[in-house]
Design brief:
The structure holds two protein chains of two kinds. Chain A is α+β, with helices and mostly antiparallel strands. Chain A has four helices and eight strands; from the N terminus they run βααββαβββαββ. In chain A, helix 1 runs antiparallel to helix 2 and helix 2 packs antiparallel against helix 4. The longest helix of chain A has 25 residues. Chain B is α/β, with parallel strands linked by helices. Chain B has a single domain, classed as STAS domain (Transcription Regulator spoIIAA). Chain B is built from three helices and five strands. In chain B, strand 4, helix 3 and strand 5 form a beta-alpha-beta unit. Chain B is globular and about 30 Å long. Chain B starts with a strand and ends in a 7-residue tail after the last strand. Classes of the chains: A alpha+beta, B alpha/beta.
């Protein structure tokens, strides 16, 4: 790795699908610039999927014309986050209100979302293979990111009225 | 197929496949040669089409997946759900 970048690299992204490939290429260039080629290739195997899913989630849920993607490249961890001004996801509000109820979220792998701290959920993979769980629904985006990321969380920022999805991938 | 298989194309793709099934076609092949990425909305459309194929005893196969796209199918185990061939020549 060339240098450690302590601050976030911010991309202001238009809430349109037309911008996805351009921003994906910019994201890949950042990764190749910050990590050696072998490491970048390994990271992008997972990070490409995370970036695309966070981006398309922003396109779908942002109310304004733009949303924000952030990238921070550290020597031991790559962090990717997305901020948008859409309404908070209904499942998140449901969990925040009950605080301890896990949320089962998909089919072929089972993704759980559990209350972590104030206004924050942590996503994880459950060993349970049942598809009959209460609250089960199909959400491939959550599934992809949870499986690709080392850590994946959602935070509702009430004062700014922003959704923050945060992912890290170990280098 | 367009290079970007995303939420913008998902509904149209699903409509196209369902229309083919309505017309009585029972062997459908989706060629991903030009597709550089697939998002979750498009995957949901693909799975929905697959479910419809199963009810009609039709076959839906995927061919020519690029490495990144193939990795995505493996990541969420959809490679176990779809019949995937590397090239058209491998089709039965």
């Amino acid at each position: 790795m060339n240098t450690t970048i302590p601050s976030w690299i911010i991309m202001n992204c238009p809430a349109k699908t037309e911008g996805i490939l351009t921003h994906l290429h910019s994201f890949q260039e950042i990764i190749y610039k910050q990590y050696d080629e072998k490491c970048a290739l390994r990271l992008l195997k997972k990070a490409n999927h995370i970036f695309i899913e966070l981006y398309t989630n922003g396109v779908k849920h942002t109310q304004g014309a733009f949303f924000e993607m952030g990238i921070r490249c550290q020597s031991d961890v790559l962090e990717i986050q997305k901020l948008d001004d859409g309404p908070p996801p209904p499942f998140a509000m449901q969990i925040f209100s009950k605080q301890t109820i896990p949320y089962i979220a998909t089919v072929y792998n089972t993704v759980t979302a559990t209350y972590s701290s104030t206004n924050t959920l942590l996503f994880g993979i459950s060993e349970s293979k049942t598809m009959e769980e209460e609250f089960a629904f199909e959400h491939y985006g959550l599934q992809i990111i949870t499986l690709a990321a080392t850590q994946f969380s959602y935070t509702w920022l009430p004062q700014a009225k922003l959704n923050k999805f945060y992912c890290s991938v170990n280098v | 197929m367009e290079p970007e298989a995303n939420l913008e194309q998902a509904a149209g793709f699903k409509e196209f496949i369902l229309n083919e099934l309505t017309q009585g076609h029972t062997k459908l092949v989706v060629n991903f040669t030009h597709v550089v990425y697939v998002d979750s909305s498009f995957l949901a459309a693909l799975v929905s089409c697959m479910k419809q194929c199963l009810t009609l005893d039709a076959e839906l196969s995927l061919i020519e997946l690029k490495e990144d796209v193939s990795d995505l199918f493996k990541l969420i185990r959809l490679d176990k759900v779809f019949t995937i061939y590397t090239t058209a020549e491998n089709l039965p």
